[in-house]
Design a protein that fits this description.
Elements lengths: L6 H14 L2 E8 L3 E8 L8 E6 L5 E4 L3 H5 L4 H9 L32 H23 L3 H19 L20 H7 L24 H9 L18 H15 L1
Antiparallel strand pairs: 1-2, 2-3, 3-4
Length: 256
């Protein structure tokens, strides 16, 4: 699941899965077409529980009265609880929407007629080759012998291409098979992962400081404290250190 969902949706799926462990159910009806359950926490009343329908003829499809899957496209904890009880080994295809998968991050852009140009096909092919190369590196990076074998294969391919000169071939926009891959193959091999760390969001910074105008600066300067005794800024005459020092020196003379 981690390699299928994007990061945010995978975290949401984990929360729903953990929450489903504490649930229980009661069977309210059962026939050849559908089995209906009341699913919820043990300590709540039955009327507060959600109704989950397990449709047998429709490819084991499960629906819930909370409608979370219909609203945001992610399985709720009630459906996941029934899947655990029915011992689903993998999630069915209908439960994973393509818009929440990693493959949806990268798509081949088509024109108004739904046809990729030759240049777009080349770019998509290059992306797929890079993806295959990265997967090969990840698979053999722990083995020195496999890395040497991969290096030798690439070197042999480069030497072979140095002796071959391919003529310019013009292909029609609809001929995606000229590269040996269909559009569906290209889309399935292109993968863009989520960033490793947090990304700086756009918008106004939280601690931004705007440039003050001349009028505002003059008002700030006028509000600064000015001492009437020593004419220094930053304090009043009542707390003037110079005045206090002079009064301290004058006090013994008055006492005598």
């Amino acid at each position: 699941m981690e390699n299928c969902y994007i990061r945010n949706m995978f975290e949401f799926f984990k929360k729903e899965w953990v929450a489903s462990i504490q649930y229980t159910h009661d069977t309210i009806s059962k026939n050849d077409d559908v089995i209906m359950y009341k699913v919820g926490l043990r300590e709540i009343e039955e009327y507060k529980r959600r109704t989950v329908s397990y449709h047998l003829p429709q490819g084991r499809k499960i629906t819930c009265s909370c409608h979370k899957f219909k609203s945001i496209g992610i399985l709720c904890k009630h459906i996941l609880y029934i899947m655990r009880k029915k011992k689903f080994s993998i999630l069915p295809d209908w439960s994973i929407l393509s818009r929440w998968t990693i493959e949806s991050r990268c798509r081949v852009v088509e024109d108004r007629l739904g046809i990729m140009s030759t240049e777009e096909e080349k770019k998509a092919l290059i992306w797929s080759i890079r993806f295959i190369f990265n997967m090969a590196i990840e698979g053999v990076k722990e083995s020195s012998s496999c890395l040497q074998k991969l290096k030798q294969v690439l070197q042999d391919f480069i030497k072979e291409q140095e002796t071959v000169r391919y003529p310019e071939v013009t292909t029609s926009p609809t001929d995606a098979s000229s590269y040996g891959l269909s559009q569906a193959d290209l889309l399935s091999q292109v993968c863009v992962k989520d960033p490793a760390g947090p990304v700086k969001t756009k918008g106004h910074p939280k601690v931004a400081k705007r440039i003050k105008s001349g009028l505002e600066e003059s008002l700030v300067a006028a509000k600064q404290r000015t001492c009437r005794y020593c004419c220094a800024k930053g304090h009043y005459s009542a707390g003037c250190p110079k005045r206090k020092a002079e009064e301290a020196t004058m006090r013994p003379k008055n006492a005598m």
